[in-house]
Amino acid sequence: MSADQVILSGHIKGERLMANDGGVWPDHLFEDLDRTGPMPLYYQVSSRLEAAIRSGEIPAGARLENEIAIGQRLGLSRPTIRRAIQELVDKGLLVRRRGVGTQVVQGQVTRQVELTSLYEDLQSAQHSPTTVVLLHEVIPATDEVAAHLGVTPGSNVVRVRRQRSTDGTPVAVLENFLPAEFEDITTEQLQERGLYQIIRGRGITIRIANQRIGARRAHGDEGGLLDIDRDGPVLTMERTAYDSSGRAIEYGVHIYRPDMYSFETTLVAK
After folding, report:
1. CATH 3.40.1410.10 occupies which residues in the chain?
2. What pLDDT, in 10s, does the model give residues 78-97?
3. In the prediction, which pLDDT does 5 show?
4. 3-104: CATH class
5. 243 CB neighbour count, 10 Å cutoff
6. Is residue 186 pLDDT above 50, yes or no?
7. Cα separation, 105 vs 128, whole angstroms
8. Domain 109-264 class in CATH
9. I want to staple 84 with a disulfide (CB 3.0 to 4.6 A). Which of 30, 42, 179, 251 is the partner?
């Protein structure tokens, strides 16, 4: 007899039950667990919980009860509940956060590697993007920025740094540099629209870009801005975009939360 079979079950029937600590747990999905059959109990819990998340019955952003409370509801041991939850953490459906608990991950944005902006990608995926402008200033171009934009080092360029969120959850920190002709872009425009939308609105066609995708650990204020561990992993993208005449019109250095974002590309054999 396993430890799970000797714990008394005392859960409360209901549709989606809200716990005293604000956590969510759909009791009705677990009323007929097979406690004597060959299928492991952790797998039964994990698979039913996964189905509830994927169907939206447990919505994105919802916080689950703690492992002890769930175990008491279902009459299962804490190690069983911990393994069931870890299965879904490994699948990217749940995330454990210090001081918050276990939450359902917001729907991940998958981005085709093409000439679109994050704002447009979020809108296309039926998300609600919001922007906090962290920096908006005119600065002398460093050697690196000047080389990407094709301007003279020390000449004026526009620097913009933004935090982009979707449905209230931070997704990316975006830093962009533009030639001086874009000095008249306003902070209000940057809050309300994507950068590429603003550029296209000026009659400029973005034709081609050089792009590099990578990964590293967060540093400085990045962890706090993305609501991840201070030195947690982030996806990176560095891009220089050009207009139809071949002139560089934007150089961007972006970081993304890997649990919320991914890049997708198609490879064709020669």
Report:
1. 109-264
2. 999 999 998 888 777 788 77
3. 40
4. mainly alpha
5. 15
6. yes
7. 16
8. alpha beta
9. 42
